[in-house]
Amino acid sequence: xxxxxxxxxxxxxxxxxxxxxxxxxxxxxxxxxxxxxxxxxxxxxxxxxxxxxxxxxxxxxxxxxxxxxxxxxxxxxxxxx
Length: 81
What we know:
Layout: H1 12-25, H2 29-59, H3 66-74
């Protein structure tokens, strides 16, 4: 698998924590950084896709009805007063 290199600046505290974690897990700091970046990118991608889907649905006029909104908000103890 091809890979790309990136660099990052960490605070001394974070770098020290990363060193300790890498040693504890018997992994390289590069491995940990790659895993962390992949998890972050995956999470952000999911959120962006959900937002874009919501915008598309709104542009198509697909909105919840007032009744659906009241029912949903009532689950959280929110009423329209």
